[in-house]
Write a structure and sequence with these properties.
Radius of gyration: 34 Å
CATH topology of the largest domain: Calcium-transporting ATPase, transmembrane domain
CATH class of the largest domain: Mainly Alpha
Structural class: alpha/beta
CATH architecture of the largest domain: Up-down Bundle
Low-confidence stretches: 1-13, 234-238
Helix content: 40-55%
Largest sheet: 8 strands, mixed
Number of helices: 28
Strand order of the largest sheet: 8-23-22-21-9-18-20-19
CATH superfamily of the largest domain: Calcium-transporting ATPase, transmembrane domain
Distance between the termini: 58 Å
Number of domains: 4
Length: 846
Amino acid sequence: MYFKKNILEEKVENKFWQYDSSYWLEQLNSSEKGLSQAEATKRISKNNSALKNRSALRKDMMLFVYQFKSPLMLMLIGAVIISGFLGDTSEVFIILFIVLSTGLLSFFQERNAGKVVEKLQALIAIKTTVFRDGKITKINANQIVAGDIISLTAGDMLPADCILLAANELYVNESSLTGESYPVRKEVGKLNEETELSKRSNSLWEGTNVISGEAKALVIQTGENSLFGHIAKSASIAVESTFEKGIKDFGYFLMKITLVLALFILIVNLLNQKSIMESALFALALAVGMAPELLPAIATIAMSAGAKKLLEKKVIVKKLNSIQNLGEVNLLCTDKTGTITEGSIKIAGLINYIGQESEWVKKLAYWNASNETGYSNPIDEALKDIKIETGYKVSKTGEVPYDFIRKRLSIAIQTDSEQLLISKGAFSQIKSICNKIRDENNEIQPITLFEKKIDQQFQLFGEQGFRVIAICYKSITADSITKELEIDMIFAGFILMSDPVKKGIIETINELYQLKVGLKIITGDNKNIALSIAKNIGIKNPIILTGKELLNTNTEALKQLVKRTHIFAEVEPQQKERIILALKHSYTVAYMGDGINDVGAINAADVGISVDNAVDVAKEAADFVLMEKELIVIAEGIKQGRKTFANTMKYLYINTGATFGNMFSVAVASLLLPFLPMLPKQILLTNFLTDFPYLSVANDNVDSDVYTKPGKWNIKIIRNYMVIFGIHSSIFDIITFLTLFYVLKAKEATFQTGWFIESILTELCILFIIRTHRAFIKSQPGKYLFLLSILALILTITLPYLPFAREIGLTPLPLKNLGLMLGIVLFYILTADILKVWFFKKYKQT
């Protein structure tokens, strides 16, 4: 431990705000210049390596146990243990081998898929600006240690619990901890030990984010020792997606039916005076055979495959299960900058209130932008490139950083003759703090004389497609620069910016429409610019709703109004979230944003999307991060989501149809036969042999028409499918039973072998039939699906002829018997394919 006194550990963990920053610099062996890289590396390795190893091992162990946690699987394992006590060791080992092999297969597949996602997430790790060896550098947030000095600006996520060393107009969003959505002002100082969380103004907390201002802070607590870490350990909240809820509900439904049928079969076998243990194992094996035990692995593998494909398109998946959600999306909401437009800001004019180029406006804009140190943005970057000639030097004396409440940035500078406060920002916000104007003759006049002309110019620029902000100034003498000085300013003019529509954007929007995905633009720009953009991208008669109109619209009316609106303009950050929530009543919504003002909407959407150069808090909130801000990759992501959904549904259909029919068939057979129609270990072996090709469903090809509509979870259709195809499967099973028992007069082992072969072959064939809604010969399966299915088919037919066949109750079949089984299977294939085409035409559902 690198604290000077171990007795301080409790204070560090709980109540560090009661001491000032100099106290903690001493206790943590740090300084204003931060830690050395060597010392930081030592602390990282000491505190994190053992924890990482333990957490990785624990995660693998939990994943392995997860493969066997279903009640049916646990009941089977319990029955096997009892069987072992009763001395039937050969059966115990065979069944345990099959159960463990299936679990291990699923475990390794799911573990590999999880590692892919971890690697993807590492590509977009949150960065933190830190002082190491006295120099400013950016490092991954998880490399921060106690004693580090970090630099913070608007949009940064807090990587640890900290105490402030310096702050300038610092406001932090602590809603994740306190529930209070309004930003909290932070200042240097020390507080009473008993100060409540919401009033600890000298402290910063992991998981919160900077709304505005800038700061320098000392890291006190990281990881599990932080306040956020303690909360995360004690409570875990997961938002359940529509697909996950559907799977869970269907699982409960299937379990109820399975247990009822298994109990019925058990009772019938006991009434027929069959062995209690054998009958119990038989019923449990049937129950396990029907349960979709591979579903978690198949869903994970399918989503992991989708994540790999998206990475090729420079899309990083942060939350794996959100791929399923993306497949359901039928509306995309986005800002226009960088998605609809090029996103490269070009200065088109620095002009006065009558539209004339102005050297004074140019100087003010350059001084303001070149001295800004808070919220980095493309406007300031573009302004820094303009050339000015002053003949004298200026020096910065203060700054009031940009925030989304004031919507302006103020910089104080000292020239040779005076101190100026220069503010630039949204037109209405700048105009509201001005009472004077600098006219074309450089004379100062009351702004009221020119108000109409200013408004007309602003509207005209918007109609011409320019993005417009305003700039103002005044002379000051203050020593301390605060936002209270932003009054009685002199209006100087406008900064015009151009951001042309992207090439190919119309084609991209059309591709989204072909995927049945609508597009709505949500922007803070004025309605005239929004109208110009709408026309440029081919929207005829665009309907625009402004932020002001939103304020006067109640929630119920808004739900209807948003459906017919194309563009939302002049909206406030909190209104974006309100728009998304209203849209969610009619659509599955994806929202794409990259700023602090987008975070609420990203969280509110069904799918949140951000970009690699977004502020930390936006990337943290998002489900997907685009390495390039292109709408076309979202279209590709939607396709992958729909493919993932379709392949997951294939497994559900395949598993439920055939096995549900088998359960009914066995119930009937148990009433007729003097012996079990199949041994428990044979049922589990059937399950095991079909699991190999079933797992490859996750990477199967899908038909092109699957991409053209969102995949929607519908338990009613799955139930109908299960009943219709279950009955179809049962009919052929009963035909098999009658043929074996009454026509071929098969004895116990021969009967069980015949049904074993017929059962596996029909399950393998239904896989090829159900994987497409077309006639199965018109759709090409995936390579691995085809190869593994052929391998399982060959193994099934040859098993009765292998030396150990007797150990699993199988015996070689006469050619007549085998031929009849294959004939039944062929007839099953033909009728199932006809029934499948009819079913999906009737329901028209993926």
